[in-house]
């Protein structure tokens, strides 16, 4: 049976025993409940619409003795000896519920209260944790104030309310309750809101707030305890693999997972960034047929519990997979028949339940990458679809139903996801489209809508995917926006947003050849003036030669994969565009440059 240290403040013990609630004055060096309250960060609650209790795996059998967390609490808190039978059936116990003073001998009449409700924990900071950390909180047997056996009906009346909305009906229990509340929040680094603080301050008036308390050990959340930065930080290496490595080094050893994908093409990789953010691990890049030695060394340093390889054998070969197998206790491959199937598999395995999902085209990377950090910050997925489709495909619809999605955010304009597809998505879910005139404006639109403030923001070049991919996993994990920007400046909309937020930390992903000093200095991009109208040519004398004949309509017969180089694709596009427009839909972001991922 797992040992539980019963740490009870003196005032609380006296209250439960029915004795005097007058506690001795604290010594000069002792901490009081009021001192603990003053240590807690005050911040508005956020993310309640994304809360899902399933994200907190609870009532586990941590020590494998056959008794789950609930029964461990009942055994520890019984005032008489409990007999433990087969299947951890409990007999002979007696429990006094501290919230109402009722005594019970039937454990079925009791519920185990998470003193700080799980939804309250989520909105106070746990939304930014990984699933393992939420699991640890939900099963915290090492501090007695975390989990309490109480009368079931009283626990139901409490629900997810904080002390501004609910206190125990037994008045003598309120000091102990408020004291344990601030101790649990201190232990797990959770914030309080202003109303909550006012209510706790009221309880701590007089003897309750001045009594000495024993603070619990602070739970170290190493993978998410990233130090805030001020000024400009650049995370970069000699190439895309080294840049991803520099980003990964921001994580402490002992991460729950490392995601690994190809660094040479984007389709399979796009959904991996929000998955890695939600799971609490970095995203590293490899070549399809080889793994750089420095990447192998970094994975050894990280000591992950699991490695997830994203994409099929064409993206990450079997030989690379075999090398990775020796670097973690567990490994799996998330790969499907195409980029869309891979996206669905990654999403289904990384997210148990989610109320919201981002939808992006799988044909281009900028919109999905901007959405990835925003999605990761909300513990939401980015699901790739064929943007030219006229309706939501059955497989994606089935996945979103399984995840319990109720709202969808479309990342990108009608050139990325058709109006017909948006209408189809809107017929199933509450839908919002976030887009702009180009990839940079779309990035600003997504972040401006999904973030209300940001101490830190990330910048990645918008013309290549690799740096932004690894960066999106990190940005999402620390709850920060990622903007795709030009190489030499930042758009005016981005400049306005970071000024309004009072942002003080700026992380550039990639070296100075990728993001120049103009981005580091946050130089605003010049607004281009429309070209002057061409003067009408004089009447030709003699009569000019006739224009070349109009080429025949080739129809929608080309994909980017049909061309060897971007120049070849551009030449084909320029031949037919003046006559038929983007007939083959090669220009996904409507900037007159096609197939931008080709060499």
From TrEMBL:
Secretion signal span: 1-25
Region Disordered, annotated ranges: 526-564
Alphabetized UniProt keyword annotations: Signal
Organism expressing this protein natively: Paramicrobacterium humi
Lineage: Bacteria, Bacillati, Actinomycetota, Actinomycetes, Micrococcales
Zinc among keywords: no
Pfam families for the chain: CW_binding_2, GmrSD_C
Domain Excalibur calcium-binding per the UniProt entry, residue ranges: 556-596
Compositional bias annotation for Pro residues: 532-551
Record-given protein name: Excalibur calcium-binding domain-containing protein
GO CC, any one term: outer membrane-bounded periplasmic space
Source superkingdom: Bacteria
């Amino acid at each position: 049976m797992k040992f539980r240290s019963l740490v009870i403040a003196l005032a609380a013990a006296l209250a439960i025993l029915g004795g005097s609630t007058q506690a001795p004055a604290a010594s000069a060096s002792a901490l009081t409940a009021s001192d603990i309250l003053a240590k807690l960060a005050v911040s508005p609650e956020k993310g309640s619409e994304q809360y899902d209790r399933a994200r907190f795996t609870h009532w586990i059998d941590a020590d494998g003795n056959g008794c789950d967390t609930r029964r461990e609490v009942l055994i520890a808190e019984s005032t008489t000896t409990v007999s433990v039978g087969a299947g951890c059936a409990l007999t002979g116990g007696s429990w006094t519920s501290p919230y109402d003073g009722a005594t019970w001998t039937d454990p079925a009449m009791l519920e185990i209260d998470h003193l700080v409700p799980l939804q309250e924990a989520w909105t106070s900071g746990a939304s930014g944790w990984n699933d393992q950390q939420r699991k640890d909180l939900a099963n915290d047997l090492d501090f007695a104030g975390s989990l309490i056996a109480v009368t079931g009906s009283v626990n139901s009346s409490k629900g997810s309310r904080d002390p501004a909305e609910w206190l125990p009906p037994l008045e003598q229990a309120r000091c102990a309750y408020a004291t344990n509340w601030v101790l649990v929040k201190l232990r797990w680094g959770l914030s309080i809101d202003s109303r909550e603080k006012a209510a706790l301050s009221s309880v701590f008036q007089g003897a309750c707030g001045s009594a000495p308390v024993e603070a619990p050990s602070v739970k170290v959340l190493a993978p998410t305890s990233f130090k805030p930065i001020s000024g400009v930080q650049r995370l970069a290496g000699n190439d895309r693999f080294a840049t991803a490595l520099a980003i990964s080094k921001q994580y402490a050893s002992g991460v729950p997972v490392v995601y690994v994908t190809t660094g040479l093409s984007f389709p399979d990789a796009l959904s991996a960034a929000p998955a890695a953010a939600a799971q609490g691990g970095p995203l590293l890049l490899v070549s399809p047929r080889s793994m750089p030695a420095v990447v192998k060394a970094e994975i050894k340093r990280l000591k992950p519990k699991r490695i997830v390889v994203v994409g099929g054998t064409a993206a990450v070969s079997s030989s690379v997979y075999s090398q990775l197998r020796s670097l973690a206790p567990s490994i799996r491959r998330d790969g499907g028949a195409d980029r869309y199937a891979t996206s669905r598999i990654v999403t289904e395995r990384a997210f148990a339940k989610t109320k919201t999902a981002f939808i992006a085209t799988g044909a281009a990377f900028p919109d999905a990458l901007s959405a990835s950090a925003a999605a990761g910050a909300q513990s939401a997925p980015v699901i790739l679809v064929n943007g030219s489709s006229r309706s939501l495909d059955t497989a994606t619809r089935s996945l979103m139903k399984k995840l319990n999605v109720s709202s969808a955010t479309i990342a990108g304009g009608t050139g990325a996801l058709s109006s017909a597809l948006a209408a189809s998505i809107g017929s199933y879910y509450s839908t919002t489209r976030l887009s702009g005139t180009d990839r940079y404006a779309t990035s600003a639109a997504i972040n401006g809508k999904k973030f209300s403030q940001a101490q830190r923001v990330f910048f990645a070049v918008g013309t290549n995917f690799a740096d932004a991919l690894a960066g999106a996993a990190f940005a999402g994990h620390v709850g920060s926006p990622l903007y795709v920007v030009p190489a030499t400046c930042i758009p005016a909309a981005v400049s306005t947003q970071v000024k309004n937020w009072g942002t003080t930390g700026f992380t550039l992903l990639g070296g100075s050849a990728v993001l120049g000093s103009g981005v580091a200095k946050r130089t605003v991009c010049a607004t281009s003036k429309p070209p002057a109208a061409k003067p009408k040519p004089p009447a030709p004398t003699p009569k000019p030669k006739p224009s070349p004949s109009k080429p025949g309509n080739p129809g929608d017969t080309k994909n980017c994969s049909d061309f060897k180089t971007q120049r070849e694709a551009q030449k084909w596009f320029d031949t037919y565009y003046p006559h038929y427009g983007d007939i083959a839909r090669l220009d996904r972001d409507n900037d007159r440059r096609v197939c931008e991922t080709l060499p």
